[in-house]
Amino acid sequence: MPTPSPARMHDVTVVSNEPIADGVYALVINAPKLAQTIKPGQFVNIAVPGNAMSLLRIPLSYASADAEAGTVEIWYAVVGDGTERLSQMKPGAKTDLLGPGGNGWTIPEGCRRALLVAGGIGVPPVLCLARELAARGIPYTVCIGAASKGCLVGEAEFEAAGAPVISVATDDGSYGYHGFCTAAAEQVLELEGGEFDYVAACGPEPMMAKVAAAAAKAGVPCEVSLERMMSCGFGACSTCAVETTNGMKGACMCGPVFDASKVVVW
Ligand code: FES
C-alpha cells in the first residue's frame, strides 16, 4: 500500500522561463511552501493553460529549490504541445501545480561514496541528489551524457555542487566522449566498484537498465528515477504503472525513484 501522497495544490507565478540548451528550458516559479518541502527526486505536476482540449498536468522533476527565496527551478525539454505551451509562459503568468509528488532518492545509511549517472533531461533530479550528498559530506562521482553538445545541461552545476564530472558523453561526439554515459559508468563500476555504496541514475530507460546491470554486477545498491506518463499524479489511475518484483507499482506514488533491483520491465 503506498503511503498517502504528500502532494498539495500550490498557486504559482512564473519568475523566469528561459532556454538553457537546445530544446531545454529553465522555469523558475514562485512557490514558497513547495520550496520548503520538496526533496531530491520528487516531482511536481504542473497545469499549463492554453488548450481546453488538454486537461492533463505535466509531471516534471526539479533542478533546485531555494527555501529562502521561495522559488523552485524546473528544467524541462520541449517535446510536445504541453511543454511547447509551457515554454511560452512569461514572467508573471500564473498557474497551479500539485507537489511535491512521489518518493525521492534514498541515500543508504553509512554511504561513503556515490556514483551518479544522468542522461539528457534526467540531469535535474540527479543534480538535486548531488547537492544533498554534498550537504551530508558524502563524496560522489558524476557521469553525464546528452544527444549533442547543444543539448547538454548540468555540467557546470554539478561542478558547482562540489564534485568534478569525470565523464561527459554525447551521442554524436560533438563534445566529450563519443557514445553514451553508460560506458564510463560501467568502466568505473568494473574497476572501482568496491569504492561505492550507492549508484543513482536518471535518463533514458535503456541507459538506466545498463547502469543498473553494471551496479548489480559490482554488488552496489542502485536507484533509478523512472519517467512514466502520468494522468492523475496521485494514485487514482494506472497510467504510471511500473512492473516490479513486488507487482505493479505506480511511479507517481511508489516512485519515481525505485530500487533498480526490483524493476522487472524497463
Ligand atoms: Fe495516476 Fe500514477 S498517474 S496512478
Task: Write the SSE topology.
Blueprint: E1 8-21, E2 24-30, H1 32-37, E3 43-46, E4 58-61, E5 64-66, E6 71-77, H2 81-87, E7 94-101, E8 114-119, H3 123-135, E9 140-146, H4 155-161, E10 165-170, E11 177-178, H5 181-192, E12 198-202, H6 205-218, E13 222-225, E14 241-244, E15 247-250, E16 257-259
Parallel strand pairs: 8-9, 8-12, 9-10, 10-11, 12-13
Antiparallel strand pairs: 1-2, 1-7, 2-6, 3-4, 3-7, 5-6, 13-16, 14-15
Describe the model.
The protein has 266 residues and is an alpha/beta fold. It contains 6 helices and 16 strands. It has helices at 32-37, 81-87, 123-135, 155-161, 181-192, 205-218, and strands at residues 8-21, 24-30, 43-46, 58-61, 64-66, 71-77, 94-101, 114-119, 140-146, 165-170, 177-178, 198-202, 222-225, 241-244, 247-250, 257-259. The strands form 3 sheets. It has a 7-stranded antiparallel sheet with strand order 4-3-7-1-2-6-5. α3 links the parallel β8 and β9 (140-146). α5 (181-192) packs parallel to α6. The model has no long low-confidence stretch (mean pLDDT 93). It binds FE2/S2 (inorganic) cluster. FE2/S2 (inorganic) cluster is lined by residues 230-233, 235-240, 250, 252.
